[in-house]
Amino acid sequence: MQKIYVHPIPVRIWHWINAFGIVAMILTGIQIRYAGLIDLLSFEVAVDLHNWIGFLLIGNFFVWLLFYLFSDKIKVYHPELSPMKHFRESFRQLQYYGYGIFKGDPNPHHVSAYHKFNPVQSMTYQIIMLLIVPLQFYTGLLLWDVTLFSGGVELLGGVRVVDTVHVLTFIVLTSFIFVHVYLATLGHTPTAHLKAMITGYEEIEEEPGQTPSP
Amino acid sequence: MASSRKKDSTTVGTAVGAATLVLFLVGFMAAPAATAGSLSEEDGMCLSCHSDEGFEKATANGETLSLHVRGEAFANSVHNWAGCTGCHTDVELDDHPAAEREINSPREYAAQASRVCSQCHSDANLKDGPEHHAQVSNAGGPACAECHKAHSIEKMGPWKASLEETAYCLACHGRAASAQLGNGESHSLFIDEAGLRKSVHLDHECTDCHTGFSKESHEMRAFASAREHSIVRAEVCRACHEDKFEQYRGSVHAALLDGGDLAAPVCTDCHGSHSVGPKAGYETITGLPCKKCHETVFDAYAASVHGQARSKLGHIEAPVCADCHRAHDVSAASVGDRLRNACLGCHTGAMTAHQAWLPNTERHLEVVSCPACHAPAAERRIDLRLYDSVAQELVSEQEDVSPFENQVRSVDANGNGLDAMALWKLLRDFDRDGTGRKTTLRGRLEVRTGVEAHRLSDTTKAIRDCDSCHREGAEPFQSVAVSIVGPDGRPVHYGAQKEVLTSVISVDSVGGFYAVGGTRIKLLDVLLVLALFGGISVPITHLTVKWLFRKFLKRGAREDASKNP
Q1: Residue B507 distance to chain A (closest CA, Å)
Q2: Which CATH number do you get for residue A97?
Q3: Nearest CA-CA distance, residue A43 and chain B, Å
Q4: Interface test with B, best of A31, A37, A43 (most B CBs within 10 A)
Q5: ipTM over 0.85
Q6: Which domain holds residue A155?
Q7: Other CB atoms within 10 Å distance of the CB of residue B137
Q8: Pairing relationship of beta strands A2-5 and A201-204 according to DSSP bridges
Q9: Into how many domains does chain A fold?
């Protein structure tokens, strides 16, 4: 069993703050949206928590962004510039998740320090981190003070439009969380990837038994 | 002067004399007429009895009619040439005094005696002049003697010249008099001199306001109704109070008047016409003129925290009507920010106090009317107001296009209230008049009636529970209206179905109004449920398939082990 250092400490700090923060945001968001149906927290407390955690996550987002912008680890997100190659590799990865994994085929993706994401992960994480999450932060910020950011609110078509976008991205992130957590259990053991995100070291099985990363 | 006239008015002659008096009278009938300052012998004979100051007669109503005549005054009057019997034609010289003559009252007698004046001063002649027009036209007006005295009648010219303008006017208008208007109404011409003297206009002469009138000129005017008279006369105030008049012209009151509502107030309805009091008088609970028309609103105000602070606690800084609504440029309460600014103008710490606990404070205070929380017992609703995002102002109904209600009815044929699709169509069609307008809807949470808006309570009782609005089925969102500013400045409301606040179609049409929780879009709830279902079912399905294929996994692992021992 080989160990590769794939998760530097800034990434791990960002990840776990993000993980707990997003779960808290989902729960407080549900409480805010469904006050009356769910009354675990008062509306006022839920809004306060949602706002504070939101700002924490925005700050945390910049930890992630600045780390990757100013380190060579950004290579893990380098996009595959050949569409044919990207789609071919993505198809192989999806074929593995959808079929090969059930009959014990090896994971087509081989983890290394600068190549820790498979093509599907790389594309998904970039969509999440560079589109969905910023959109969620931006709309959340607008909703936090609709007067201060009235220009942005009006630009999007009004507070109802902003909230609709905020809820749609919340729905996307919520469904993503389930899949993300499940895929994290598909290491060579159910907790292998979880441990890696704590220690930084991913255990790599000898060929041909490669496993997917979350 | 008036009192002396009244005294003289009752000093008329019905002589009670002795039988010998008849003989004297017969003798004096042939005597020469009197000259100014002197009396004829015949008149002297009458005065032999009537000059007695205590000479009087009890009338049927229990009053006393004085029979005393001041000889000197009569001698100097303009009518001394006529002598006593020139006017007292009913006196029978051979039967005077008529012992059986019954007189009901001094006033009735004065009226009867004054009829003789018409022998020379005919009604037709008198009616031509405004001074006597009302008296002649209306039964029950003052008898001639009440103004001109009975026996000491003076020349009008010197008397007129001796009076100030106002005193001259009050000579007639200080007495009960009325004029009949075109619609048959009786319009009082009486001016309360005491009220006039107490008014802020006491230094003015009548003719300062009643321009065109003077001691020499009194136009005869005709009005269709008392209301028309008030409206026309209100223009008079403009001469001095141009600024206030201009403010009034921009008010909802003036707009109502212009729209044909004759009940809308003009200057005199609030200030009175002749007894205009000082400004401070209108700023008291008892002096507020608004309550004359807005009685139910006033009652709500009087019972409110503001009214109670004024009347019970004596806090003169507590607002009265004009402090919030203004005195002259009164606008529709639910249009614009004026009332909100009025609240925040006094409650300067309100913004800070709300910021301590209320997220999005400024937007809340912009979208939620103050009474919506501070009149906690009130029923509330959402008013979706048509807003021109290009001109950045509320849309007003145009006179040259179809009335708003017609436009709404064209998309709500059943009259059930606008649904989300109808509302969307309404907005789509609304800007097709080529004005370049971009109409959107701006929502506002407000109380349903003006009366409720005044039932403001103590701050401790104000609604501070977020759940009052931010939960499904919250009360304010059960009633929805769409409104436009009407021609008179007041909003014109049309009912909408409450579903317009929760429909996905409204994301565009009601984009400017949203209350988290209370007006959430139902379709997003469905999507969330589907997403949760998908998020959970993907792992479960994957795990299930893995479990079903576990034999292949084990076989594959064994093959791998055999290949890589």
Answers
A1: 6
A2: 1.20.950.20
A3: 6
A4: A43
A5: yes
A6: 2-204
A7: 15
A8: antiparallel
A9: 1
